[in-house]
Amino acid sequence: MATMPTPMAPTQAPATLFTPCSVDSLGSSGTTATAPQTFLKFSEMTPSPAPSISPSVLPPSFANLAQGATYRPVYHHWFYKKMVEGKVLWQPFSMSDSLALEQAFTSAMISPDTRVATDGGRYDVEVLRRRRSAVYWAEDQSEVRRCSWFVKGSMDIRYVPYEENVATMLEEEYRIASTSNEWNRHVPLPDGEVIIIHSPNAIAHHTRSVSPDVWGTNSPQMQQKPRVVKRGMDEFDISEGEPEKVDHLLFLVHGIGKFCDLKFRPVTEVVDDFRNVSLQLLQSHFKEAVEGGRAGRVEVLPVSWHQALHNENIDKRLDNITLQSIPRLRHFTNDTLLDILFYTSPVFCETIVQAVGSELNRLHNLFLSRNPTFSGGVSLGGHSLGSLILFDMLCHQVPVSTPSPAPTPTTPTPAPDGLEVSGDEEMKTLGCLKTRKARLSRSVSYVTIGTAGTGQPYISYPQLVFRPKAFFALGSPIGMFVTVRGIESLGEDFSLPTCPMFFNIFHPFDPVAYRVESLVNSDFAKYSPLLIPHHKGRKRMHLELKDTLEHVGAALKQRLMESVKNTWNTVYQLAMFHKTD
């Protein structure tokens, strides 16, 4: 019977892997012989010499693997600084924009003039200079960072990225701690604050505060609650980015004042809401078409004219005549409500329309230069006074007519008075034109009286270099201004010369909005405006409340009528019963 060879005694384990059970030897029969357990204090242990390891290979320790702290380089994402309601916020670029910036940054062909188009082409980023600039409108340049480490205080909502040099220093300390498994590393910052890397998932930023010591003097000390430090982009919600294909271009003209809502945001920020809603509708209603490349996005660009009107000379003249009482209300009036009077002024009306027209043409040409493959349509939208400006401008556009073929020469028959005699068909046509002229004379032509109605003897309206597909008037006072100009009716034949579609969109509670369709046909005033369906398949809150109250009122009325009817029947039956007696 063959016997199993006696195994060699195992090599003594290092002190860091000490176990209280000592193993003496293994029996030849396969059973293990254990000695009595001996417990030693950690200080009494004699560490065994470490095995020889090649200096070029450093395997991670078992404890390091157990904690999952194997070092991996951090992912860098690009952020830009933005002012929102007076607060500084760091917004992440979309995933596609950040990848484009990272690719340009790591490229061997990068130069100080390297620019990357972001945000659908509305901004350019100078990669090495770390600057972000608007393309289509005037805006202060913003700072750009290549971010990987972030910090958040106990009272903060968002993480704030560290400066790039601080993030590089933290990443190097994290790499050393991860590969050597030596944590609790203190990283001093130039301002005297300290970041302590306790573990891969516990990193704290200790700030210094000034407080009085026992002698009454101020001395810096560490704060009680350190700030949380985060490595990487795990908890950030990053959008994928806008589709590259653009199907339609929409220009939006603002109304009175330089602010467009109750948050005092300029038109450049308000149009972001239009753009975001359109992108949401693409994902919710046309997702398959977008993914298949059959549908693109709608690009929305703002058109501003307030700065062209309120120059230093005008504002100074207004300040000289403005009373000092109730300054805030008077400043609000000068900055907003006076825009209406400026538009009816004999001098400033042309300044406004020329500013809007030149800005529309500039933006259109610039957009085509940056999007040479664009073949979609262009539409115009205006809010409040901006819709009136566009309406007047579109009414005075001259359509480019196609050249007609040369007429065939004919020999006219001279009349006794030297005039040419027309045929029967031409006489009928002339009669129709006379009838049409008589009908139009009863409803004053808007184009004829439009310039005089604005208080101008003559206004030179700029001509657009494109033909808009549609015109959207949002909360528009067009109907009121047309009526004030003395125009009783636009006529059923009214149309914008170069724009085939006109939509008057308003909220029923908007005090500035007026109807327009009754100026085309007075009978339309009897009909209620058409309700635009909500994109989520429901009605707006005020409409839902109105319908609910109407249903409740109808139900109460029905129950009251039934109760009165039943009571009346009971009284009648009692009266008839006593009458028979």
TrEMBL record:
Superkingdom of this protein's organism: Eukaryota
SMART domains: DDHD
Annotated Pfam families: DDHD, WWE, WWE_3
Biased composition annotated in UniProt, kind: Pro residues: 402-415
Organism: Graphocephala atropunctata
Entry-linked InterPro entries: DDHD_dom, PA-PLA1, WWE_dom, WWE_SEC23-DDH2
GO terms of molecular function: metal ion binding; phospholipase activity
Lineage, opening ranks: Eukaryota, Metazoa, Ecdysozoa, Arthropoda, Hexapoda
Family assignment from sequence similarity: Belongs to the PA-PLA1 family.
Residues annotated as signal peptide: none
Domain DDHD, chain residue ranges per copy: 464-581
Region described as Disordered: 401-421
WWE domain ranges (all copies): 64-146
Name of the molecule in the record: DDHD domain-containing protein
